[in-house]
Automatic annotation (TrEMBL):
<dbReference type="InterPro" id="IPR013096">
    <property type="entry name" value="Cupin_2"/>
</dbReference>
<dbReference type="InterPro" id="IPR014710">
    <property type="entry name" value="RmlC-like_jellyroll"/>
</dbReference>
<protein>
    <submittedName>
        <fullName>Cupin domain</fullName>
    </submittedName>
</protein>
<dbReference type="Pfam" id="PF07883">
    <property type="entry name" value="Cupin_2"/>
</dbReference>
<dbReference type="InterPro" id="IPR011051">
    <property type="entry name" value="RmlC_Cupin_sf"/>
</dbReference>
<feature type="domain" description="Cupin type-2">
    <location>
        <begin position="34"/>
        <end position="96"/>
    </location>
</feature>
Length: 105
């Protein structure tokens, strides 16, 4: 067992901040933080991804549509799909799961 202290907690170091908390052969877990009003400039990932909104509010946009998101919402993004958070009205913290582990760009 491993406890991930601080996972999903907002981090205000910069407008967009990603911190990885765990990496195994099959998945990785991190926290993605975006300040209210920030621009989410991420590119599509090579991995499937699940976001769990822990704090904040925004609109999540993909080619298939957009959704208002807030605490408790869970989002699935398949590998290579364009996606981003826009209209971030409250500091946003997301627990992020990647499978396989996040490789970066």
């Amino acid at each position: 067992m491993q406890k991930l202290s601080g996972a999903g907690v907002f981090h205000k170091a910069e407008p967009n901040h990603f911190a990885e908390h765990l990496r195994t052969e099959s998945l990785s877990v991190g926290t993605y933080s975006l300040l209210a009003g920030a621009v989410d400039d991420q590119a599509p990932h090579h991995e499937d991804e699940i976001y769990v909104v822990t704090t904040g509010r925004a609109t999540f946009v993909t080619p298939s549509g957009s959704e208002q998101v807030g605490p408790g919402d869970v989002l699935f993004v398949p590998a290579e799909e364009e996606h981003r958070f826009v209209d971030i009205t409250e500091d946003l913290a997301l627990l992020v799961f990647f499978a396989p582990p996040y490789s970066g760009r």
